[in-house]
Amino acid sequence: MSDATAPATGPAGVRVKKMSLLEQDDRTKRRNAAEKRFQFYGLTAITVGVLALAMLLISILSNGLSAFSQSFVTFEVTLTQEQIADAEASVVKTSKYSAIIKDNFQTALAAQGLADQVSVDDAMGLISKEAAAQLRNVATARMGDDEDVSRSFTFLTNGRIDGYYKGRVTMETAARDSNISPEQLQLADQLREAGLIEKRFNWGFMTMPDASGQRPEAAGLGVAILGSLYMMLVVLCLALPIGVAASIYLEEFAPKNWLTDIIEVNISNLAAVPSIVFGILGLAIFINFAGLPQSAPIVGGLVLTLMTLPTIIIATRASLKSVPPSIRSAALGLGASKMQSVFHHVLPLAAPGILTGTIIGLAQALGETAPLLLIGMVAFVREYPAGPPEGLFDPASALPVQVYNWTQRSDPAFFERASGAIIILLIFLLFMNALAIFLRRRFERRW
Amino acid sequence: MSLVKMTASALAITTLSATVATARDQVQVAGSSTVLPYASIVAEAFGENTDFPTPVVESGGSSAGLKRFCEGVGATTIDVANASRKIREKEVKACADAGVTDIIEVRIGYDGIVFASQTNGPEFTEFTAEQWYKALAAEHFIDGELVANAFTTWDQVDASLPAVDIQAFIPGTKHGTREVFEEKVILAGCEEGGFYQAMLDSGVDEDTAESKCMAIRSDGRSVDIDGDYTETLARIDANNNGLGVFGLAFYENNTDKLKVATMGGIAPSTETISSGEYPVSRPLYFYIKKAHIGVIPGLKEYAQFFVSDEIAGPDGPLSAYGLVADPELSATQSSVAEEQTMASGS
């Protein structure tokens, strides 16, 4: 019995006294109260959700934004051809270059009148260990010239010095810290006043490869971003055509029988399979059986394709279903073949839904770490992969993998980097979702 | 549609062509998460100092690394397995069954295990193995009987310790560190205190006595940490009375947050560990597939670079990060140069 007739009749159908509509009886009050309560529950749920999101964003932003700026030290370095030849002849060439930087830095300090503040080795502790590699790159390029190299270099400062400018390291913690002393921090302060050390935006965070635990200041996302990009390329090129073809066949052409029913049920089930399972499958099929290389974006892309396919198929079928049958009937009635009606009329109308499904599937794949664990992509990779298509077979890592790796490192500076990497990942996801909305809006105008 | 067809077929072709050409030009390493920081420092320096590409280093644990190492020979398998313990007989056999017969064992140095707490926490400064055994054992052997561990605060264990609740964060069973902790701290403490002998005297056989000694209490006073040391640090940070088990390198990178306690009167440092005074340490290894030398470019060079004096020696970057240099490094260097494999069938 519908509620509309309720006020007129009592519980057992007995007529009750008619009341003013403005005066609410108990039952109406109860119903209104229930409605208010429900609205309150809904609001509470939304508030909790929004608060959680805000907390997450605030904590990530407050921890990670500092990863985008970095302090650098600039001074003059003179390098003779003999020094280059001598350094290149040793086993660990960078240690020779490090000694050269040490001498030159000492000269630069002496020019500022700061030479006797700390020992020579402690002064060198201000500069990142990456500096030697940076100098060697220039030196090897100039090797064989007759001229000596003499120019000003900008090196990264050590992670602890950088942490001092970001508030992570203070004089008190430095006193307890075996890696940095308060005297070194004082020297850094004086150098900053003298203009030798400056803090600025750090593009290197987005372009440089990962670095070992000894130089967190040099660690960047370059390889991870390339790896993720390559994987998304593979997923897009494989999952979209395969997924759309499969859905069109299932939706428009396939006969409805027990076989297609089984396939349909299985596709829905596949969408719920934990992603690590696809990793195991990828290891068995693509690496052990097909012999594809480990740690390569092609394998990661193939595994993520398997993972994304069900999502794309389900979204595509739903959007094909939502195209009114009258469109198909009209096309067929005007003499179009079944295929023409699908490709000329149904598919363009379903395109916004398909695109949304694909981009959401891609976004899901972008954030996935578990399947990559088994195919060797959760790794320390420092070489940039080559350009596609060969680069698809070179080792690379991925954005979420980099977050995972950095949270495990012992140096506290990596914590900031991990949050910074999360920010980049979120920006990518935001961009992809915005693209999905934009494309959908654009296509929808044709309706 | 033709564009889609083109890309799909182009990808299919590249996939196929790749299955034919499987040559790999960088060294692939996997294994122990304790060795990972050292291996990545070496990989980084190796890439910077040679013309070979930087090796790819994965972690995942000693056992997982050795398992993958033993999967077979060929470019799709790893070349080097890092391990925080010696390879087991069973693993050597598994390797041999898969065709990995010639394995070169390389010891890179020693790793110390330290006991640390919050800098502003209680005064945990001195420990003995016996105190740890008493605090963490599941059962104590008292008057010829095994009774459940009744200690709840450290001063009950030993009057010299602070009167705070026992709350220890120790590595979970999947870590190689746990094995060392049980053997060199808990079992050693059990023997030191004479509990082991007492059990033997009362007629318990050796194996049972040993496993009773090493059983850790599970009433919440000792918490297994299955993640890495950053998780242990987070737990210590949140728990004023907490005591954690860390690797020396991790502690040295976080001396501003942690204070370390001595073990048996010896403070952990690279010096005391290399001299053997500090009792809780263990060797670290990596294993190379001899069959891959000459096939994978840079493999032998990587191994030689790793154990060179400039890298693994007392003044090298690994030592600066917390690895205790091996006094017998020169022997290791020559065995790597000669590609000496482990004695087969031993």
Structural description of this entry:
The complex is a heterodimer of chains A (447) and B (346). Chain A is mostly helical and 447 residues long. Chain A folds into 2 domains: 70-202, no CATH class; 222-444, MetI-like fold. Helix content of chain A is 63%, strand content 6%. Chain A contains 18 helices and 4 strands. Chain A has a 3-stranded antiparallel beta sheet with strand order 2-1-3. Chain A is extended and about 100 Å long. Chain A starts with 25 loop residues before the first helix and ends with a helix. The model of chain A is unreliable at 1-6 (pLDDT under 50). Chain B has 346 residues and is an alpha/beta fold. Chain B has 2 domains: 21-110 and 283-337, D-Maltodextrin-Binding Protein, domain 2 (3-Layer(aba) Sandwich); 112-281, Periplasmic binding protein-like II (D-Maltodextrin-Binding Protein, domain 2, 3-Layer(aba) Sandwich), CATH 3.40.190. Chain B has helices at 2-20, 36-49, 62-69, 89-97, 129-136, 154-157, 176-192, 195-201, 206-214, 229-238, 248-253, 270-274, 299-307, 309-312, 317-321, 329-337; strands spanning 28-31, 56-58, 80-83, 103-118, 126-127, 139-142, 145-148, 168-171, 222-225, 243-247, 258-263, 281-289, 324-325. In chain B, the strands form 2 sheets. In chain B, strands 1, 2, 3, 4, 5, 8, 9, 10, 11, 12 and 13 form an 11-stranded mixed beta sheet that branches. Chain B has a two-stranded antiparallel sheet with strand order 6-7. The longest helix of chain B is centred in the N-terminal third of the chain and has 19 residues, at 2-20. The model of chain B has no long low-confidence stretch (mean pLDDT 85).
Number of strands of chain B: 13
Strand content of chain B: 15-25%
N-to-C CA distance of chain A: 41 Å
Class based on secondary structure composition and strand pairing of chain A:
mainly alpha
Spell out the helices and strands of chain A N to C. HEHHHHEHHHEHHHHHHHHEHH
| Largest sheet, spatial ordering of strands of chain A | 2-1-3
